Amino acid sequence: MTTSTDMRTEFARTVAELLDEDPRTAVVLADISADLFTESAHRHPDRTLNVGIREPLMLSVAGGLSLTGMRPIAHSYAPFLVERSFEQIKLDLGHQDARAVLVSVGASYDWTQGGRTHQSPGDVAVLDSLPGFAVHVPGHPDEVPSLLRHAVAADRSAYVRLSNRTNAAPRPAAVTEAGRIDVVRRGGGALVLAVGPMLDPVLAATAGLDVTVGYAATVRPLDLAAVRDLAGTGTPGDAADVVLVEPYLAGTSSRLVDEALADRPHRTLALGVGRTEVRRYGTPEEHDVVHGLDPAGLRRSIDGFLNRGAS
Question: Domain named Transketolase-like pyrimidine-binding: which ranges (predicted)?
Fold first, then answer.
């Protein structure tokens, strides 16, 4: 889906506003997207920092800024920001009780031509190994400003995962400070929970099915009260079935859903990027097909899950 703007542009515009509004805000870059911050660097040279292609240093600088009372935003490509710099995230942020907002681009495989070095389907799972991170996954560029502002205003570390993939329309009800699940369609069967840019493929895949479709742009914390409310009770005739569709590693949020429904019989189907590495460049859409995340692949998986429950 193509829109008049994109998530990275909305991110840079919002950061420029935050730099003007709050003298505690700083942005730390590692060359990626530096051209979008030229004006900010001119207006706020002491709070717009580019450390060059040194992502671990970028995180260490962010940790140091946080310890001085600043609110740093660190930004780069997802695998460089999260995987390459994980030791600094763990030690220079987490272990020091420092807090920063990390904002990535590239998602799981936005630039398939870049090869495995530019793919990061495991980023949210990696951050899940640390306590306290909020995670936001916008599905439309118009959702980025609200989510970013909530992340910067909060007193915790946060990860905002930007993508070139986008839904046709924003869902304002899902980008509140509380991060609630937005009910897009109500049905009598399973809850199909789509995260970020997976909403449009999920809506296409579930056309004609008697299911409830929910949308989440904030997944840490995940609105588990809504999951409990929207999933069935697990009693005869009211199956508690949840299909979780995430744009990153399949099953990343399964544990949370299973724990939320532990007091009732339930089934969970976790769909997302598979663990098998795709060693052909291809296009993002072709990778979707390989991982079963295109509408036809999602429909096959959801039909199979629901039909197993009916037999």
Answer: 5-170
In a domain, 232, yes or no: yes
DSSP label at 94? I
Q: Model pTM?
A: 0.96
Largest CA distance in the chain: 65
The answer to whether residue 173 sits within a structural domain is no
pLDDT digit string, tens, across residues 242-290: 999 999 999 999 999 999 999 999 999 999 999 999 999 999 999 999 9
Query: pLDDT tens across 166-192, in order?
Result: 999 999 999 998 889 999 999 988 999
**Are 9 and 35 within 8 A, CB to CB?**
no
Given a contact cutoff of 8 angstroms between Cβ atoms, the answer to whether 101 and 73 are in contact is yes
How many CB atoms neighbour CB 265 within 10 A?
12
β-pairing, 182-185 vs 212-216, is antiparallel
Same domain, 119 and 215: no
Conformational region of residue 157, where left means phi above 0, alpha means psi within -120 to 50, and beta covers everything else: beta
